[in-house]
Task: inverse folding
């Protein structure tokens, strides 16, 4: 099992949030691979023995959810109960919404779907328990429409507002690394008074030092690595490579080389925007962060391209744009030298 590196601040926030009265939709966002899913799963694991909490957890990253039928198969389980244990998740005590054995997924309206979700949520509440609905990579539902023109995602947001802000029945927690999607949500006036946003960002340097020391890296290795590490999986890679006889310097050099080639490939496949891309990247030559309000309108579309390609990360709540990782920053600096 991969080791979990303690993120006490994030764990405390989320565990406390799960035990409060439902009153908002919580959006957990952050750079790709910053540890959002890992932290959320740890919260579930730490609280799964609580008899008063029932977790409905859907990791859409695992599934192709491009059609209505696929969505229904992911979210619902056929059986004789209003909610059923997800037997495919052996390591976690999580549940799926229940439907009758003869429930016809092919001939169902969006109102039928929401009626079932409400019934199942209320069944949990009637047992004196608090339901917690968690959807990882929620933006994957953007392309699904019911009855020809009803956006599943937009209608889900309306349902979530009802379950949380209006009726206080159920926590709804949505995770995403798509910062443009978070921007859409943040700008949605109907969600403005009903949502909270929580950033799971890079690891801080003191925590990285502590972890590397616990993993038996020496002072020289730690002092070198600290300038390049920002994401949890990078520590896993560093630890594994050390066991394989690969030095810290070589591992990090390889990281940067790979990121540099990815960015160069992106530039080559967008030659009509090469000048604008290089101009945009040059803004990070000396600065790791840029305030979005200072970006010229002429470069906005280029920034958007770089964010969509996960070269840059847009923290819409704090109005900051930065590379998705420190190693990406060094790759950018190499390209614009």
Result:
């Amino acid at each position: 099992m991969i080791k979990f590196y303690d993120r006490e601040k994030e764990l405390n926030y989320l565990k406390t949030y799960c035990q409060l009265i439902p009153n908002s939709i919580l959006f957990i966002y952050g750079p790709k691979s910053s540890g959002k899913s890992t932290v959320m799963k740890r919260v579930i694991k730490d609280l799964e023995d609580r008899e008063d909490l029932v977790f409905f957890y859907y990791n859409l990253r695992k599934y192709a959810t491009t059609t209505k039928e696929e969505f229904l198969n992911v979210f619902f389980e056929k059986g004789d109960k209003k909610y059923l244990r997800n037997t495919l998740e052996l390591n976690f005590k999580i549940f799926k919404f229940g439907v009758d054995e003869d429930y016809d997924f092919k001939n169902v309206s969006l109102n039928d779907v929401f009626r079932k979700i409400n019934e199942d949520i209320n069944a949990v509440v009637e047992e004196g328990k608090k339901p917690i609905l968690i959807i990882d990579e929620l933006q994957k539902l953007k392309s699904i429409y019911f009855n020809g023109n009803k956006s599943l995602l937009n209608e889900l947001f309306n349902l979530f507002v009802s379950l949380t802000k209006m009726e206080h029945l159920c926590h709804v927690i949505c995770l995403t690394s798509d910062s443009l999607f978070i921007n859409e949500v943040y700008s949605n006036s109907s969600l403005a008074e009903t949502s909270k946003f929580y950033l799971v960002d890079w690891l801080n340097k003191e925590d990285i030092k502590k972890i590397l020391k616990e993993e038996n890296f020496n002072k020289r290795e730690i002092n070198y690595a600290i300038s390049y590490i920002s994401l949890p999986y990078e520590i896993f890679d560093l630890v594994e490579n050390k066991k394989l006889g690969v030095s810290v310097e070589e591992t990090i050099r390889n990281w940067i080389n790979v990121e540099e080639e990815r960015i160069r490939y992106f530039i080559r496949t967008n030659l009509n925007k090469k000048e604008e891309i290089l101009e945009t990247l040059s803004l990070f030559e000396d600065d790791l962060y840029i305030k979005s309000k200072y970006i010229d309108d002429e470069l906005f579309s280029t920034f958007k391209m770089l964010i969509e390609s996960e070269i840059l990360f847009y923290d819409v709540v704090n109005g900051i744009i930065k590379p998705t990782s420190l190693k990406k920053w060094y790759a950018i600096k190499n390209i614009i030298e």
About this structure: The two ends are 41 Å apart (CA to CA). Residues 8-199 form a domain with the Rossmann fold fold (CATH 3.40.50.300).
